[in-house]
Amino acid sequence: MKHEFFTIRNCRSFVGGHFSNRTPSFLIVLLRLWLGLVWVFEGVKKINEGWFREAKLTGFFSGANDWFNSILGIASEGAEAASYATPVANGAAEQAGTAIINWNILGLFKVFFVSGKDLVESTLSDFGFKLDVPLINWFIDRVVLSSETIQLIMQSSIIIMEILIGLALIGGLLTFPAAAVSLILLFMFVCTTGVYLSNFWMIFAGIAVLICGGRIFGLDYYVMPWLKERWKRIPIVRRLYIYND
Fold first, then answer.
1. In terms of DSSP bridges, do strands 109-115 and 98-105 run parallel, antiparallel, or are they unpaired?
2. Distance, CA of 156 to CA of 158 (rounded, Å)
3. Where are the domains of the chain?
4. Nearest to residue 163, comparing CAs of 15, 52, 67?
5. DSSP state for residue 6 in the 8-state scheme
6. How confident is the model at residue 76 (pLDDT cuts 50, 70, 90)?
7. Which of 223, 222, 227, 229 has its CA nearest to residue 245?
């Protein structure tokens, strides 16, 4: 896997030379820093909105659902939405909008891609994408929204994760797990409130900084070799090593 996808020389990959180009990692430093700043901003924004003080997930989820339902022609009651959710609180739920994709994939999940305006008037911030997964909907309704206490726990966890992800990316510390958790969070948003098309860059940025994104002007340059050296000293790990690099 390493030599087929990440360390490729002399065009020796399963797609020849298409994977053999190596780009200097310092080119993604600014992308990593900006992604980290955005995550910190989102976490601090939620703190200022009172996510530590009162349960908001019911309005957060129902507001986004109302926006999609209003465009898809499904009757529902309006509520507030915030951050990554679609702009119901700004009155977008009253607009007819445009349903571009409304697919039911084998009854397992649905794919929604809509715009809050007519297509000719739409900008990136008007488009919303959502995966509607019944199992996730059941978990949200039966577990997450079952009590205000659980909502506050979930809200606090989201805020803490967003800020920690942002700080880790800014400092280039444990960049791989930080970027991986950011992708998991974004996937959760896609499957619950949906995500604006203008926020999709965060998904691609998370993928871009996933591998070795913190070794250039980051703490991973010092931390990862130190962790790797101690990891290899663990007896069970030492027995499982096929080769040492």
1. antiparallel
2. 5
3. 38-208
4. 52
5. I
6. very low
7. 229
- At 66, list the tokens: 């109302």
> Could you report the per-residue pLDDT of 233-245, keeping only the tens digit for each?
888 777 776 655 5
Report the predicted TM-score, pTM, of the whole model to 2 decimal places: 0.78
Q: Tokens 């780009």 correspond to what residue?
A: 23
Residues in the chain: 245
Which amino acid type is present at position 141? D
Amino acid at 90: N
Cβ pair 114, 132 in contact under 8 A? no
Three-state secondary-structure class, residue 36: helix
> Residue 119 has what DSSP assignment?
G
The whole-angstrom separation of Cα 197 and Cα 69 is 18
CB 60 within 8 A of CB 82: yes
Q: What is the pLDDT of residues 143-164, one digit of tens each?
A: 999 888 999 999 999 999 999 9
**What Å distances lie between residue 56 and 45, 84, 86, CA to CA?**
14, 14, 15
Task: State the alpha helices, DSSP H only, in 49-133.
Answer: 57-72
* DSSP state, residue 2: I
Residue with tokens 């940025």: 205
Token pair 């499982």 in the structure block, residue = 240
